[in-house]
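We store amino acids, tokens; thus:
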Amino acid sequence: MTTLIKEDDFIQSIADAVQFISYYHPADYISHLARAYETEESPAAKDAIAQILTNSRLCAEGRRPICQDTGIVNVFLKVGMDVRFETSRSLQELCDEGVRAGYLDPDNPLRASVLADPLFERRNTRDNTPAVVHVELVPGNEVDVQVAAKGGGSENKAQFAMLNPSDSLVDWVLETVPKMGAGWCPPGMLGIGVGGTAEKAMLMAKQSLMEDIDMFDLLQRGPQSRVEALRIDLYEKVNALGIGAQGLGGLTTVLDVKINTCPTHAASKPVAMIPNCAATRHVGFVLDGLGPAALTPPALSEWPDVNWEPDYNKSLQVDLDQLTPEQVASWEPGQTLLLSGKMFTGRDAAHKRIQEMLARGEALPVDFTNRVIYYVGPVDPVRDEVVGPAGPTTATRMDKFTDMMLERTGLLAMIGKAERGPAAIESIRQHQSAYLMAVGGSAYLVSKAIRSARVAAFEDLGMEAIYEFEVKDMPVTVAVDSDGTSVHTTGPKQWQARIADISIVPVD
């Protein structure tokens, strides 16, 4: 029997889905992250997970985005061959219309991050279209839809290699994961595709991230296939690397490892690996011609009783308006700070424009002397908010601008997420600066610390404009101190050694 899918029902379902996943973590992610929180022994990692869990519940209650990077939308369609669409538009156009409606929803506007003309103008499309759409024709009279919003921080860490047939997948994964750094915001999951051709391996890796996280159940019952045994092996060995939440060192780096395979050429072994971050966002539904999809949110009881709050006994309170180079030089690696006062924001496009202005000998529109810059592109505010969710972006993208900013603008310190590269760390050391890390995946929680926000320069850049934020008790960790010590190097090394000791069972 032929099923008729109405255009409006399809568009409404996509729009509802992108809204839904912006503020609801999947229940399987919540439960596995809660278990990781209970077992985590690293204080820094446990604090980061507490922030992520607290942020997750706040977003579910307030219906605001889990992360300021609300992602590029991926739509996977399995269209039954007995389905007919009541429309004159293509499936790509229908998906884009749904994305447009969802991202421009006035009750919860989502950040538009998609740029047209990726090589030259890189112009923001302003509505997060187009989506990336994959269509498969299958038997049946329904449309199976999977919608995901993939953030740039984790997508940028996607890996691909064409291995020799005799090469070990495990060896490749264990060699590759440490090189990915923490920009993908662990703890999350790894999706792996093996076989087919290059593009098929990447697609399988991405599709595997739509599967439920079930590692806890798998460990409880034991593997029932060679692939399941391999998943457990990789899960245990990746966590034994000690990378931990946000790369700070700890027991849990991944909550699950998924593996999809496909027949391949005898001379080939294509492998792809794509991480999902702490802002894991996806939902599936089926359209059967009876109206738009009905999406069921997780019950609030799914969240653990974890409520992160500033710790005034363990954290140093810092007045940004009176900050001095001597104070910055006194900060120690791993120290937690609570920042209050005014800071500027700026990320890729703003740094590039600053570089161009300095090269032309032009005065900058803001004075960075003795100031701190926060790498962020916030979501627009709604109702009584001064700013929308405003979590950190990956700091390594600003590494090539770091020496310029510290040498020529009077900047004292920087805030972002994940590690810094060797050149940036050396510049920080030479200029007696510091790099502070905020927790990725806690954007709504961070925004609660922002008391005021105004565009200070480059308004035409949209979310990449320079803002001035006034904050109260914004939580950060000293990730690189003025001597160039990086906790993203020291933390994982310490925890890798500790995990190795834990794994050794004494023999009587």
